[in-house]
C-alpha cells in the first residue's frame, strides 16, 4: 500500500511504471476472484467470512492500483 501511495504522490509515472501498476491491479483482482470462488464453494462458517473479507481487501487494493495506473 505504501508503494502505491508513493506512486500516486509522484503523479507523473513513466509508461513502464503505469504498465506494472496495471498488471499488479489485474493480478490482485484475479486473486480476489479466486479467493471468493474458493470461499463460496469449499468452506462454511467463519472461515468463509474471513476469506470473503480478505478477498474484499485484496479487491480494493487492486482497484486502487488500477486507478493509479490510469493517472
Rg over CA atoms, rounded to whole Å, is: 14 Å
Overall shape: it is elongated
**Strand segment tally:** 0
List segments where confidence is low: pLDDT < 50 over at least 5 consecutive residues: none
Largest sheet: none
Instruction: State mean pLDDT (0 to 100 scale).
Output: 88
Order of helices and strands: HHH
Give the DSSP E fraction (strand runs of 2 or more residues). Answer: under 5%
Range of helix content: over 70%
How many domains? The number is 1
Tally of separate helices: 3
- What's the end-to-end separation, in Å? 17 Å
The assigned structural class equals mainly alpha
Walkthrough of the structure:
This protein is mainly α and 71 residues long. The protein has one domain. Helices cover 87% and strands 0% of the residues. α2 runs antiparallel to α3. The model has no long low-confidence stretch (mean pLDDT 88). Pfam families: DUF2768. Keywords: Membrane, Transmembrane, Transmembrane helix.
Entry keywords:
elongated; 71 residues; mainly alpha; 0% strand
In short:
This protein has 71 residues and is mostly helical.
Task: List the SSEs and their pairings.
Blueprint: H1 2-10, H2 15-42, H3 46-70
Helix pairs in contact: 2-3
Transmembrane segments: 20-39, 46-70
Keywords: Membrane, Transmembrane, Transmembrane helix
Pfam families: DUF2768
Amino acid at each position: 500500500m505504501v508503494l502505491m501511495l508513493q506512486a500516486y504522490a509522484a503523479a507523473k509515472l513513466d509508461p513502464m511504471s503505469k504498465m506494472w501498476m496495471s498488471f499488479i491491479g489485474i493480478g490482485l483482482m484475479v486473486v480476489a476472484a479466486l479467493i471468493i470462488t474458493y470461499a463460496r464453494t469449499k468452506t462454511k462458517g467463519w472461515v468463509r467470512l474471513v476469506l470473503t473479507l480478505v478477498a474484499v481487501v485484496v479487491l480494493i487494493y487492486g482497484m486502487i492500483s488500477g486507478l493509479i495506473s490510469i493517472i
